[in-house]
């Protein structure tokens, strides 16, 4: 098999994968639960939810960190996923021969730390902004300052795995995990590196996040049945459910991977990305940017729409996003969308936000390797306006050679990836 694509670029192979979700730690546990149609969404027990409109999430409760906050949990999830991925690749942890691209959630000081800072200001009664600045400037809170810097997670992961060059941190909303993979692919294609460690991680289920998404009317409020709340493409969907997780892929120049005798798990064949400046949270009504991202990913991969065997949907379970994704896919795949399998992992693990594109990339590759398509659970009330084959409720066995994975984020971030067992024409 040629080790370059039809455009003369190096083929990008996947040699290692790792994942942590609310369904379990590691590929085996997560995949077994996902294909069994199990849900990892449950009532939140991490903090009081009195007064909150949404009291459910797909939190990763089997991972403990101290202090408990989004940056520390996100770092731990990234470490666990990367340890599994690098271990599978056969590359040396601590001396990784390539670059790090990591998607992390936006970070800011959380309420418990703000409260402690206010108390430390030493003022009686109301605490002013000037009091907070004085407390922060004292130097006693430098560890907090370091903790809540955006690039800290990347620096620590880079130190742990010995990646080369400056680590790249990014946050492109819900497409972040896919964007991290895209950056790794592009770096290998340009010849800047022979390997890339690409990670998406998010441990940011906290009261602030729930309140902010609730103010946007983005979250499901069907708290009485947590496992049934996320219902992508169903008529009675009412919003997404927050989730947590981390996933990592080891990407390599296929020629270099073959030379060292690595096992190739699949290929990242194409990437498509388009911005949508229509609205802070809504997509352009004509779907043009999403459609363009889909078409660019297929063209970049050198495949035709008829070559795709399965679509791993963004599938958030929000009324508008599901409708827009269906419209965009129909514009590209035409009448075939009525029978082309498209399912949403988010029905079981919730929306893992900045980790989602990476988590779903791992699931896409496992779909190819196992020949099993995970279902969209909770599909009891079909939406007649979205006539899709969503692989309802039960996993399906099928030969899958090419998968399209969609990631569409707030702020107009649209990223699509094409994965394959082999490059087209091999």
UniProtKB/TrEMBL annotation:
Entries under CDD domains matching the protein: KAS_I_II
InterPro entries named among the record's database cross-references: Beta-ketoacyl_synthase, Ketoacyl_synth_AS, Ketoacyl_synth_C, Ketoacyl_synth_N, PKS_Beta-ketoAc_synthase_dom, Thiolase-like
Pathway: Lipid metabolism; fatty acid biosynthesis
Annotated Ketosynthase family 3 (KS3) domain residues: 9-421
Keyword presence, Isomerase: no
Pfam family, one: Ketoacyl-synt_C
UniProt GO cellular component terms: cytosol
Gene Ontology terms: biological process: fatty acid biosynthetic process
Keywords for this protein: Transferase
GO MF entries: 3-oxoacyl-[acyl-carrier-protein] synthase activity
Keyword Transferase: yes
The family this protein is said to belong to: Belongs to the thiolase-like superfamily. Beta-ketoacyl-ACP synthases family.
Protein name: Beta-ketoacyl-ACP synthase
